[in-house]
Amino acid sequence: xxxxxxxxxxxxxxxxxxEIKQRNMLKEAAATDGAKPSDIIRQVYDVTALSPDQKRxxxxxxxxxxKRARHEEHTTETISLEAxxxxxxxxxxxxxxxxYQAHVRADSHSAFVFATLTDIKSLMxxxxxxxxxxFSAKTGLQRQVLVIHSSIxxxxxxxxxxxxxxxSASYEPLYRQxxxxxxEIVLSMxxxxxxxxxxxxxxxxxxxxLEAEFPQTRQSMCFFHFSxxxxxxxxxxxxxxxxxxxxxxLQNYKRLKAxxxxxxxxxxxxFYVLKTNAPLELHPLxxxxxxxxxxxxxxxxxxxxxxxxxxxxxxxxxxxxxSNILQAIPSTYQHSKDWHYxxxxxxxxxxxxxxxxxxxxxxxxxxxxxxxxxxxxxMGSSRRSExxxxxxxxxxxxxxxxxxPTLQFLDTIxxxxxxxxx
Length: 422
What we know:
alpha+beta
């Protein structure tokens, strides 16, 4: 007779699984987000959606997890980038080609630039770039990883990292020196860098530096960074938990993000329609959005009471994706999201050891080159991915935006985006 003694036959403890998930998400958020512990706890709670009777971690326990993840109890002194050199084994890529390109300086700040000549050449033939920085919760803006991704021809529907940079600060003159150095390297090959489009984040020093060094190139935001930036406003207004409980509130927030798929000149009118139909609880967030992304802040009222506004920090021409869609620029949401958190983990893990950051760059470059070789050889999957289908659905709606009433258009975009619209 068979004995069942000792066999694992009971059902899994779902609350234990949720606790493990909660712990991991707290650690991840602590490493990649500089928000206050209370904001991180609330954000993770929203995602895990634990009911009060399911909570296994006290507030104090959650704070300790965040504290340990950030090493606040045993902080290691961050080494100045000025005080280090690039070791011999990191000067070259894993395949033996030159990898370390330059150590650039601007005032008291500096940056190390890594790229192979093959990667730099890919920028010359790229239709568009993604240029975005990542910082660590441990170092704040005192240490940045900047990665430049190039689109891959001939279809330019996929991206590959090309340039890896560790900078000591988010500082416009330093960024300008970095881009100037890249142009100098390319000029030595008797070539020029002239992308049609650069997708960036909302880091103003970076945006300004790109505009100064590449004045003929159009800049546009990446939808991941737009979503990421906007969610910080959600946290500022304490709405994250409300979204979990109030579907209508969340739907109107998603509508706000969907404005990015309209032509910039149509965004102000669509915003008024959205706000008129949105719950009052969302209005403070909408007012902030209007001040910073559409109309600008009121600086003075004229004698007849007409408000005079400053230029918005990021006008609709910067964050509207409509032109990108018409030019068949693919969605970069998942690619940007993956790389943002990937670089944040590297910077957090090695914030006190730049050499290990450089070594991580070396391994990332090797993996990217292997993947790029496979793509160019046609070894990728021929099946259409979910991203392809989603991009096509969004493109069809955005291209025919005049066929929809405003709210129907926004809701259709939200439905088409699926998880990207969260």
